[in-house]
User: What shape does this take?
Amino acid sequence: MLTAVSKKTEAKHLASFLNGNESFLLFDFETTGLKADADYPIQLALAKVNSKNLEIEFTKNWLIKPPVSLPPKITEITGITDEMLADKPSEDEVFSEIFEIFGESPIVCGQNVKFDIGFLEALYKRQGKSLVIKDSLDSLLIAKEQLKKGEEVENHKLQTLVEYFYPEAELDYHDASADIAATLMVIKAFKERLLTDGKTTSVKTESLIKAVPKEIWGFCPSKDNNFNPKEFIMFKLEGFNTCVYYDLAQERWGSKDKNLIASLDVEYIVRKALEMEGLVSFLDLKEKYKKH
Assistant: This one.
């Protein structure tokens, strides 16, 4: 049982939230602007998360074509362009799938989740559906309560929080799928903070995501600037749309989604991969997929 170490509202809410029996939806919108009643979603990413162990049950990511052109500032922030959205479905076309996951009374979580709830409510309203949020957890409100601005952190932005708890992490931001991975990292860190009597420590391996590889293959796409072969071991993980890889030349892990790789327990992935392949050591796995 997780017990809050603070009498403060958000710490108690976090403890209650993580002691719940229901999974929650961690989600994030990228939008054409800041006004839910006037702007539109262009990306929605979500992860269904087990509240007990904070393991991801499944993820989903939609790019959505809005009925308006993107302001240049939005493209600058998100990297999403009108051309990228030209052949994507409209919100009318994807809403049935969104509704199937969220339903009418979801339990949700996010960084500044009030913003995202506003856009979700507006989307439901345009589709003639009602939405009543059963419960919500906001990592921003927890941060404002637990970390003193100007003393412990410069501000309570998502990037600042990740850098505070995971100083060696190199992450991308303002992409919905990346932001939900970063938010989960922050929630894990605050859980750890509760368990350590309010003290900030380096995040333990137990708090990282233990993902199981579904497919493993070798990949040699090209050569580097010195004409040395680039070789990777690719891992398709259960419940994730993005692959992770091990760079045999650089001897490091990577992914297109830097937030994802920083939140994964790669030692666990290796153990499961060795079981799949019937091998004894990571060296055996590297030798198997090394082509040169």
